[in-house]
Amino acid sequence: MFHAAHGYQRAPLPEAPESGPTPATGTATAVAPATAGRKSALPTATEPPRPAGRDAWFDNAKYLAIVLVAVAHAWEPVMDGSRATRALYMLVYTFHMPAFILISGYFSRSYTGKPHQLRRLLTGIALPYVVFEVAYSLFARYAGDKPDQPISLLDPYYLTWFLAALFVWRLTTPLWRAIRWPVPVAIGIALLAALTPGIGDDLNLTRVLQFLPFFVLGLCLKPEHFQLVRRREVRLLSLPLLGVAAVFAYWAAPRMSTKWFYRSSSVQEIGDGVPWWSGAVVFLALLACALVLTVAFLAWVPAGRSWMTALGAGTICGYLLHGFLVRAGDYFGLFEENPWLGGPVGLVTVSLFAAAAVTLLCTPPVRRLMRPVTEPEMSWAFRRDVSELGPRR
Predict the structure, then answer these.
(1) CA-to-CA separations, 366 to 1, 31, 61, 107, in angstroms, rounded
(2) Do 68 and 308 meet the contact criterion of CB atoms below 8 Å apart?
(3) pLDDT for residue 377
(4) What is the spatial distance between Cα 314 and Cα 365, in angstroms, rounded to a whole number?
(5) Pick from 212, 206, 130, 162: which is nearest to 315 by CA?
(6) Dihedral Cα 196, 201, 203, 209, nearest 10 deg
(7) For 37-77, how does the pLDDT look when each residue is reduced to its tens digit (9 = 90+)?
(8) Cβ count near 3 (within 10 Å)
(9) Mean pLDDT, rounded, for 347-374
């Protein structure tokens, strides 16, 4: 359904305006304002980029994905007593971060390492990573009664891995735009990472490399690919696919480790007793399932502007802040002292609370409040580039 174009093109892609990260995440989320409303014809090398408005479809997709991220995180402490909940958890974890990462790659197409892009990379991704890495570590140390919890910028803690990964992926964008077969190369690197134990915890590199194909695929996509996904035929075809995936997840729930979906370990380290060659098959199968379910999810995203559209611009706040609520429930014994949360009524309650909380955290007032951390200007910290002063002179 997705047809990835090669990363080698003679005419440059129109430059997408950049904003803070938007995980799909939780994802926290790292995506620039949407530009899919542009015409598919690319400008010539001499044409300047033409500004375009936000596409409501992308903002809606980001909001719905961050709701799934928050709900899945809320399910994790209470799903052990319910096979159905574990199956839903595995189903959602198959595609929610791949969807966010793919969209992040799509809006990173214009990154070439220009001075203003490097500044945005530092202020919109690196700075939030540092702030929330320290904040989550201190929260675990004092609220979670973990006095030995280290503060290390090289070892992402909890949700901050996505910001570290996005920083690495976006820095390598010019490389992926230059090579002839970027997606197969990225899949090969991801597979090697999955088969290599002991890569280490630095920047959670195992996860960065295993999720890499979705980012590179996003770099190769064009607006017409997303228009194809939004067709009625694709939407109808996605229903039986989702049904089959749900049935398989229910069968696999008691048999399969959730570590396969986190992509933070090699197949040898997961501990299911599988040989490396069958682990490679499982990894590639999950990669294909993630892509198919991502298409199915995107096919049902509403296209028009609605109440959720404005919330899609603030998913970075929802992603980074909802983790404190989930961690607080764990640290203060909310899930252990209330076993009824693992029952049907409790799971519905947890899901509604998580969806409402992350929705509130994505609202414009919260985004304005968090702007000094997630979208700071910091012009005082950078030199003025000569090329930017040229037109004024």
Answers:
(1) 37, 18, 20, 24
(2) no
(3) 85
(4) 10
(5) 162
(6) 20
(7) 443 333 333 443 444 567 899 999 999 999 999 999 999 99
(8) 10
(9) 95
User: Which amino acid does the sequence have at 181?
Assistant: W
| Whether the Cβ atoms of residue 312 and residue 99 lie closer than 8 Å to each other | no
Q: CB neighbours (10 Å) of residue 344?
A: 11
- Burial (CB count <10 Å: 0-12, 13-18, 19+), residue 391: exposed
pLDDT tops 50 at residue 19? no
Length of the chain as a residue count: 393
Query: What are the tokens at 125?
Result: 């991704």
Asked if residue 52 lies in contact with residue 125, where contact means CB atoms within 8 angstroms, the answer is: no
| Structure confidence at residue 387 (pLDDT) | 53
Joined tokens for residue 6:
């090669």
Retrieve residue 166's tokens.
């996005």
Question: Rounded to two decimals, what is the model's pTM?
Answer: 0.83
Task: Give the pLDDT band of residue 375 (cuts 50, 70, 90).
Answer: confident
Q: Maximum Cα–Cα distance for the chain, whole Å?
A: 69
Instruction: Give residue-wise pLDDT tens across range 107-156.
Output: 999 999 999 999 999 999 999 999 999 999 999 999 888 888 888 888 89
**Collapsing DSSP states into helix, strand and coil, what is residue 29?**
coil
CB-based contact 23:30 (threshold 8 Å): yes
